[in-house]
Design goal:
By secondary structure, the chain is an all-alpha fold. The chain has 29 helices and four strands. A hairpin with a 2-residue loop joins strand 3 and strand 4.
Length: about 850
């Protein structure tokens, strides 16, 4: 496959975290190397000097310099595509000139092994010494390879030239991909890769035409490679000038960025440090192991005893042992490993590396002999076969641009990656059916077009997904490991292809060739010109076509199986947001877009912060409101509690009052029965009882006075006594408050509307019943005329009461009939007479009861 299949990147946040340990591993390794070599100074300070240099360059160069740089990178890929077209289209003819057409896969295998081995030390050169030094060094190797091919006189020189050219151009493409990663942000990385690879649009048609013209009669095919040896150094000079100029300018503007002075070392120390630092021993073991283990698969059929040949068995065993020893050496013995193998612990990068190897295997299992198949089976010319074989290189750039812009817009790549793998697997499977004799060539071209679309998506997915799992300092190492996986995949694919070819075509030729040509099968097998010499439709040509069909079918079946495994791994791949990590900075592709995105993100972050602040303020306000509400609720609860307490206190007071009232009522009931009166009635009753007691005392005193003979003497009326005042008080209290309804209390009747209140007499006395509401009340025979204002008192208990009468139409009286002593009654009546001057009309004058001596006259005893 194209060496550009082994590239770039992929950056998941989880994978970035897991890749941060690699710098520490490098530091420990460099320190161990320094101790072993007794070299002064710390090599770890120089380990990433090249990365810092390119970062300074991109910050200080102009946009014009960026455009010129990408023109140089585009030119590198353009020249590489021309070289690939020459190798694919001229290679079978050149090898046929030396009689070695069947060694196509063997030459490709050797070139892939050597190219893959150079990636790891080149990654260290890129990181430590800078991009420009590695670019110029690989330019020199490429120039050397083109000169060897142009001047070759045998198959060995040609193979050596092919190996050097493949090493040089693959290394230049590697440098180009690293510089592309340095000069483009991660989301726009696909656009940068599409720009540098767009030169294949020219070589898709121009490369095949140039190859056909170079091999035409009268032309020297050597000038096809000679022209490359002239163009390659021109590109290198322009690229070196740009990088050197702006690196110098950056150092001048920022002296603090200049590297620290290197420690003094003698020549041997420098050589020893260089050998150990770049692990030349590990590289040698790796190359030897790959060559010895993989090469027998391509040459076993041509060995004297096939797979049983002694040197085939020895190569397989020694190669396998060396590969196992390489792993042990890198893990436990090497002072500085050839690669940063800790990157393989990153899940996404490891998955991408395996996918890239499988893609290389799937393509390489059938690609090398496709041009020969078109010429032999379909009778296509060298130019037309080149056009068909270059469909992928012609169609891919257009579709790559579309896919790259979709990736930039979405920031995702996995599902484009997966859909491309699905289409690729489908149409490789269809080629199994269409790549048979008698099938129209249009179906082959249709499959090639769809494979071009699919392959461009898959390759761009590998390139964009490879270094996204690492930081900027680890980009070169990640691409290097990816490149190794691609070339190992190519080598394995070439091995499978060579094994199928060498084990299928010779046997089919022996079986299918006419009897007169069976002895010439080796010449036919090893020379495409011999195969083309037989006309179409002849038995020999038909036998050759059928033999090609069997071999191609087996190759495509192997490629389809490998593509199916690749599809499963892509489905398990982690999808990554490419916009989250730009990687590159300065004046780079996508920087303006990324800057706008950053501004938008900052604005969004500011808006989110403002929204958060507003939400916080709202939450604070809500909390304050809730606190206030809680406080109000607490206050209300306290007030309610206080009110409840007050109500409880009031209820308790009311209960206490009710209890007191009940107690008073009980006392009243005990004293007066069930129909007890009010407070005034109680007082009147109490005073009445007191008056009764006093009356008894006065009567007793009167009887004593009668016995002593004091009664009847002319003595002045006595002065009002306290007993009289007491009776006046009782009378006044009887008039207040006035009664509006009759009330009966223990035998005493209050007449409705009369204003009289008849109170119970003293014990043993019977109150006089009321005749009518307007009648006078009679008490013990003493009549109080209605409206007279007199108080009728009972006289002594001995005389009988006189009948009394009362007028029914007399005015209302406020008199109260009380039991009083005769003396007090006379005094009260005389006082009333004296006051009024006459008796009330319609009433009879009061008369002394019979037997009563008249008004009581007090005379001192003994007078």
């Amino acid at each position: 496959m194209d060496n550009k299949d082994i590239d770039n990147k992929d950056i998941s946040q989880h994978d970035v975290a897991s890749s941060q340990h690699t710098a520490d591993g490098d530091a420990a390794a460099h320190a161990a190397m320094a101790r072993k070599l007794h070299v002064q100074g710390d090599l770890t300070q120089e380990a990433y000097q090249g990365v810092e240099n390119i970062e300074r360059v991109t910050e200080h160069w102009t946009w014009t310099s960026l455009i010129l740089t990408y023109f140089c990178l585009w030119s590198v890929y353009l020249l590489w595509r021309f070289e690939g077209s020459f190798e694919r289209n001229l290679g079978p003819n050149i090898q046929s000139l030396f009689g070695e057409h069947s060694y196509l896969s063997t030459v490709s295998l050797a070139a892939n092994i050597a190219s893959g081995a150079v990636y790891m030390p080149l990654a260290k050169i890129l990181d430590k010494y800078g991009r420009v030094y590695a670019f110029l060094a690989m330019n020199l190797i490429t120039i050397m390879g083109t000169i060897l091919i142009a001047a070759c006189e045998n198959i060995a020189t040609y193979i050596a030239g092919i190996i050097f050219v493949n090493i040089g151009f693959s290394a230049l493409s590697y440098c180009t991909d690293v510089i592309t990663a340095d000069t483009s942000v991660l989301a726009s990385r696909g656009i940068g890769l599409a720009i540098t690879g767009s030169g294949s649009i020219i070589t898709g048609f121009g490369g095949a035409a140039a190859a056909a013209h170079a091999f035409s009669p009268g032309q020297n095919w050597r000038w096809a490679f000679g022209a490359l040896s002239i163009c390659v150094p021109v590109v290198g000079v322009v690229m070196g000038y740009l990088l050197f100029t702006f690196d110098k300018r950056a150092r001048k503007d920022h002296p603090e960025l200049a590297p620290a002075p290197k420690p003094h070392r003698n020549f041997m120390q420098q050589v020893g440090a260089f050998i150990v630092e770049f692990d030349f021993l590990g590289i040698f073991i790796f190359i030897a192991g790959e060559v010895l283990f993989l090469l027998p698969f391509s040459i076993a059929e041509s060995a004297p005893h096939g797979w049983g040949t002694d040197y085939i068995i020895a190569m397989l065993v020694v190669g396998f042992v060396l590969l196992v020893f390489f792993v042990i050496y890198e893990k436990f013995i090497a002072p500085v490993p050839v690669a940063d193998w800790k990157l393989l612990t990153t899940p996404t990068l490891l998955n991408i590396i395996v996918i890239n190897a499988l893609l290389s295997i799937a393509i390489s299992t059938w690609d090398a002999y496709f041009s020969s198949y078109l010429r032999v089976v379909y009778g296509q010319s060298l130019k037309d076969a080149g056009y068909i074989n270059s469909v992928t290189n012609t169609v891919s750039p257009f579709w790559t641009f579309i896919v790259a812009f979709i990736i930039r817009w979405t920031g995702r790549y996995k599902w484009l990656f997966f859909s491309g793998a699905v289409v690729y697997t489908l149409f490789v499977g269809l080629l199994i059916y269409f790549r048979t004799p008698g099938t129209k060539i249009g179906y082959i071209i249709m499959c090639e077009v769809f494979l071009a679309f699919a392959q461009s998506q898959v390759i761009l997915g590998v390139q964009v997904g490879a270094v996204a799992a690492v930081n900027h300092r680890q980009v070169a190492a990640a691409i290097g490991i990816l490149g190794v996986s691609g070339y190992i995949g190519n080598a394995l694919g070439d091995t499978i292809q060579g094994a199928i070819w060498t084990n299928s075509l010779p046997g089919e030729l022996k079986k299918r060739l006419p009897d007169d040509l069976k002895s010439q099968w080796k010449d036919i097998y090893g020379d495409i010109q011999e195969q083309l010499s037989f006309p179409m439709g002849s038995p020999a040509r038909t036998a050759i076509i059928d033999s090609y069909a069997v071999a191609q079918k087996r190759m495509l079946i192997a490629g389809t199986v490998v593509a199916g495994v690749m599809l499963c791994l892509i489905a398990l791949l982690k999808d990554i947001r490419l916009k989250e990590n730009p990687q590159a900075k300065g004046k780079v592709i996508g920087e303006h877009h990324h800057h706008q995105q950053q501004q938008q993100q900052q604005q969004q972050q500011q808006q989110q912060q403002q929204q958060q602040q507003q939400q916080q303020q709202q939450q604070q306000q809500q909390q304050q409101q809730q606190q206030q509400q809680q406080q109000q609720q607490q206050q209300q609860q306290q007030q309610q509690q206080q009110q409840q307490q007050q109500q409880q206190q009031q209820q308790q007071q009311q209960q206490q009052q009710q209890q007191q009232q009940q107690q008073q009522q009980q006392q009243q009931q005990q004293l007066f029965g069930e129909d007890g009166g009010n407070t005034t009635d109680f007082m009147v009753l109490a005073l009445q009882q007191l008056a009764d007691s006093m009356d008894r005392i006065v009567q007793t005193l009167e009887r004593i006075a009668q016995k002593e003979g004091i009664v009847g003497q002319n003595v002045k009326p006595p002065l009002p006594t306290p007993f009289m005042a007491l009776q006046v008080l009782i009378t006044c209290m009887a008039f207040w408050p006035p009664r509006s309804a009759a009330a009966t209390t223990d035998g005493a009747t209050a007449l409705s509307g009369s204003g009289f209140v008849s109170l119970p007499s003293s014990p043993g006395r019977t109150p006089s019943p009321a005749a009518s509401p307007a009648a006078a009340a009679t008490t013990h025979g003493t009549t109080s005329p209605s409206g007279s204002g007199f108080v009728s008192m009972p006289d002594s208990p001995s005389p009988a009461p006189a009948p009394s009468s009362a007028t029914t139409d007399a005015p209302r009286s406020a008199a109260v009939s009380l039991p009083v002593s005769p003396g007090l009654a006379a005094t009260a009546m005389s006082s009333a007479t004296a006051t009024d001057g006459a008796t009330s009309p319609g009433s009879a004058p009061a008369a002394s009861p019979p037997g009563h001596p008249g008004p009581a006259v007090y005379s001192p005893r003994g007078v």
